[in-house]
């Protein structure tokens, strides 16, 4: 039966069918999980929010609303006069019914989905005064500003408590030691010990907050990244799987950079100025020593950014090539052995390993130099504070306790900057990795954002091709069809030699590839205008290379989340001549499948 538009979409003027909304979604037992409802409705340009709300507190201005019932069903509330409710039932094909509000209240689970249409500009003013599109990574990252504010608050209190140890040392040297005030010593020691413990607790809390922030970003962006990978057009698929997998893998390093190391550093940087101000109050001109040290720590990292960027780009490119050689050799291991190509593969591996090792050595040498130089500056800063402090003491402008306090505060002030040298080194790697991810996220998609497709509930199968051409790069056209008319129900065989374009033409007819010239119509509608979900549901396509996935035979037969019963699966297997083989196997439909190597070519 063709899919109907869900009742929640229909009153909002977005008649998108069930199949279009859930196409490509990770269903659970054939049902859409509640936390994915908002994501699915975004395809229909509908903004949705799942919330807990008593039925009588749902304002009529918020309608329509999807109500979840205790028995797992759902109704759409479109009206409420205080005594009766008007609801849409999915099974009624758009019909509404009135029911007592008390009866609905007894069925209602307390969870509702509120939805509204997103504004769609009509394009008469073009891009004038339009908002910039949200970046796929930095947009969600900015929405976590509350978590970053909590991290900053924890850093504020922790750094204020860190001043206690410096003030403790100053009071001990200036007042406790000269007067042998042991009672005061223990009181001060108790206070600073408490401050140190609280400082440690707050830093642990800050680390936990950053871990939670990273987890939230991972759970939000990782599915988005993988869904974009799955919805990429076949024509836009990267040529090298090694480079492609490297791009995806680098998401972890990008996410970690913005939610762990750099976030902790940024939360500490504002307090460098506070520590320097306190040093100026206590030691006067002594503050120039840590101030110069701060400049000397940051300057080398800034001057080497261009070189670090070049090395990072080269490192990632060579790593992607090496990963591609590994995947290619392992995937085609049988061919490698049959053609005695082990030597060629090993030569490629050794060459790339040598180049990658050389680039990595240069990168590590430069990073180590920056780290060691920061350590040297940090130690020289301590020496400089002591030397200048002695002169200030001899002038009577500073006490011994003040000198000790300034040395402690100087170390605390430049500690974040010593980490900044390493962060600047990692920034270039993160920047290059982000460029690769941006390229991946901007690849041509099956369902571009903002594009509205033609919904075809039932495809008849009438193809008409007029001047269709397709070429790969600058090579001659692989497909060049001036006129072809295939009526619904006709059976057509494609005959031709190797490289004649038979498989390419089938990909064109199935919608996996788009023609570069001409018109390809299905039921008198351009194939590119038909909704991808309708195309996938209505057009059956069997590729030359059948791929099996890790799991059981049952899992591979139910890839579409169709949840077919065992009897239906066995009937299907009987139809292709595999029923006896599966029934005779000890595990039957639970037979483990370990990729294509588990079965023969004919069985696949």
Automatic annotation (TrEMBL):
Q: Where is the ABC transmembrane type-1 domain?
A: 151-429
- InterPro entries (UniProt xref): ABC1_TM_dom, ABC1_TM_sf, ABC_transporter-like_ATP-bd, ATPase_T1SS, P-loop_NTPase, Peptidase_C39, Type_1_exporter
* Peptidase C39 domain sequence ranges: 4-115
Gene Ontology annotations of biological process type = proteolysis
The species this protein belongs to is Pseudomonas aeruginosa
- What's an example of a GO molecular-function annotation for this chain? ABC-type oligopeptide transporter activity
| Keywords of the record | Hydrolase, Membrane, Transmembrane, Transmembrane helix
Q: Where does the protein end up?
A: Cell membrane
Residues that span the membrane, as ranges: 151-173, 185-205, 263-282
- What Gene3D superfamilies does the record point to? ABC transporter type 1, transmembrane domain (1.20.1560.10), Cysteine proteinases (3.90.70.10), P-loop containing nucleotide triphosphate hydrolases (3.40.50.300)
Tell me what this protein is called: Type I secretion system permease/ATPase
